[in-house]
Hints:
Elements lengths: L1 E2 L15 E2 L6 E3 L5 H4 L16 H24 L6 H24 L7 E5 L7 E3 L6 E4 L5 E5 L4
Helix pairs in contact: 2-3
Amino acid sequence: xxxxxxxxxxxxxxxxxxxxxxxxxxxxxxxxxxxxxxxxxxxxxxxxxxxxxxxxxxxxxxxxxxxxxxxxxxxxxxxxxxxxxxxxxxxxxxxxxxxxxxxxxxxxxxxxxxxxxxxxxxxxxxxxxxxxxxxxxxxxxxxxxxxxxxxxxx
Length: 154
C-alpha cells in the first residue's frame, strides 16, 4: 500500500503501476515488494510486479521472474573462470520446472478477479514485539516487505 500523492523509488528497469483505492483515494495499491520478487538478483530484473487482480497473474509474473533470475545467474556463472557446471545444471532444471508450471496455470487458475490480502512477508519471532510480563503482542515491526497477495497464499 502506498500513499497516492508521494513519489516512490523504483528499481531500474521498472515502470510501476499504482491503482488508487476507491474506498480511500489517499492510498494506492502498487508493486509487490514481497521477498520472492526482489531477493538476490531479481531486484534489477525487469518484470511485472503488480498490482495483481488474480492468482493467475501473480503466479505467472513470479514464474517468469524465476526464469529470468535463473537465466541471469547462468550468464553470471558461465562468465567466471572454472564455473560450476552443477550449479548451471540446477538452474537449467529450475527453468524447466518453471516453464512446466507456467503450462499448468490454466488448469488451476484463471484471470478472474479475486480477493488479495495484506501480508507481512517477513513475519518471524524477531519481528514480533512481546510485553515481558504479560506476554501480549505489543507490536509488529519490519514492514518493508508487506504486499497484497492472494488469500490462499497469505
